[in-house]
Write a structure and sequence with these properties.
Number of strands: 34
Number of domains: 2
Oligomer: single chain
CATH class of the largest domain: Mainly Beta
Helix content: under 10%
CATH topology of the largest domain: Jelly Rolls
Shape: elongated
Distance between the termini: 19 Å
Structural class: mainly beta
Length: 385
């Protein structure tokens, strides 16, 4: 079934280069201005970004609006501008690319009639695009030209809008326990002073301490050991041990519930994020790591008593920002993303090998094959009943 879903998201203010056609709009000393209505909602005064989830052909629309009506028609040209993405990506720690033209169509010229303040809706049609590459797409739109017989300026912050495009991240996932112990069979030798380990996790129970979900072997630096519970820590709270110390989540986890977790270390600090929001952190005494391997569900039959599901495990040779984590947690990322040295989607659906999507060959092999279900989890809302 095809459906459309548009989710408004808050965004950061940006600087705009103004353009004008028949009138030099940017240099007019008067107050009448033109802007994109959807970039200036009544409750916000900053540049807007809208996230559109695309499944099948999807449509949205924008309106061009004047602050005050004019006595004559005004013609406005709206178009895409891929150069705006450099600033957007830098500001947000993202790596969006412009949606190719063959997947996008809209009428680029519109008219605001004399005596009116708004144009008719400019309909924007987005065709379903391939996701195999993991590229993240965006449509950067701006007012490119204004032709008016009366002076009118372009409102800088609201004359452009970014449509961030996602497709639903839907996949099967494995059910694991202490018998599976996915493990890499080679030494990686990843030398780094900063790293991020992230992914989706689900636990059936928290009946004992020391249920280790991630255990990264290191040959220099110190351990990266992430578990639920400790002797004096609630069994449903996460703990990370590294550089001779440890800290715990404030979040108490619930059984049979999906969570996105991310651990970011760099610049003398380690931070835990849960569902894209910073939960807790600690200062660490060093930054030099040589990461050699990764194990999942690794604390053995004595401690790992739960059934666990995981998906989209990613290991980065850089410290991701909160915005970068939030941006990509519910979608695939490009296997060639900068700094990504291990990416296990865990969507194979059969067998005992979790393949490394980066092409670096860092596959994780289970001692015993996990249980695969035909159920598909939608990670845009994985806990929806």
């Amino acid at each position: 079934m095809k459906f459309n879903q548009i989710i408004k998201a808050s965004a950061l203010g940006v600087v705009l280069f103004a353009f004008a056609g028949c009138e030099n709009a940017d240099n007019q000393p008067i107050g009448n201005r033109i802007y994109i209505s959807e970039a200036a909602p009544a409750d916000k005064f900053t540049q807007q970004t809208e996230t559109i989830t695309v499944l099948g052909t999807t449509t949205t629309s924008i309106h061009v609006r004047l602050a005050q009506p004019l006595d004559s028609d005004i013609t406005v040209t709206v178009g895409t501008d891929a150069t705006l993405l450099d600033e957007y990506n830098t500001r947000n720690g993202s790596n969006y690319v412009a949606l190719p033209d063959e997947f996008l169509s809209f009428e680029g010229t519109t008219t605001i009639p004399a005596g009116a303040v708004s144009s008719e809706a400019i309909s924007i049609t987005i065709k379903e695009f391939p996701t195999d590459s993991g590229d993240a797409y965006c449509i950067p739109l701006r007012i490119k030209d204004v032709c008016s017989c009366s002076p009118v300026g372009i409102t800088q912050a609201t004359s452009r809008i970014f449509y961030v495009l996602t497709t639903p991240l839907r996949q099967v996932v494995p059910m694991m326990n202490y018998q599976n112990v996915p493990n890499s069979n080679s030494s990686w030798g990843i030398a780094t002073t900063e790293w991020t380990l992230e992914g989706w996790i689900w636990m059936s129970s928290f009946s004992i301490n020391n249920q280790a979900i991630f255990n990264a072997g290191v040959s220099a630096g110190t351990e990266i050991y992430i578990r639920f519970g400790d002797a004096d820590v609630a069994y449903n709270k996460l703990q990370i041990k590294t550089y001779g110390s440890q800290f715990n989540s404030n979040q108490a986890f619930s059984t049979n519930t999906w969570y996105h977790v991310a651990f970011v270390c760099g610049n003398g600090k380690c931070t835990m994020y849960i569902n894209g929001v910073e939960d807790s952190s600690m200062e660490i005494s060093g930054n030099n790591y040589v990461i050699e391997s990764l194990q999942l569900c690794s604390s053995g039959s004595q401690y790992f008593r739960a059934n666990a599901q995981m998906a989209q495990i990613r290991f980065w040779k850089k410290a991701l920002s909160a915005s970068a984590i939030q941006d990509a947690m519910s979608r695939q990322v490009s296997p060639t993303s900068d700094g990504l040295f291990g990416y296990w989607k865990l969507d194979e659906g059969q067998g005992n090998v979790y393949h490394d999507a980066t092409g670096n060959g860092r596959d994780l092999t289970c001692s015993v094959a996990p249980t695969w279900s035909s159920e598909v989890v939608d990670f845009t809302n994985p806990n929806k009943k």
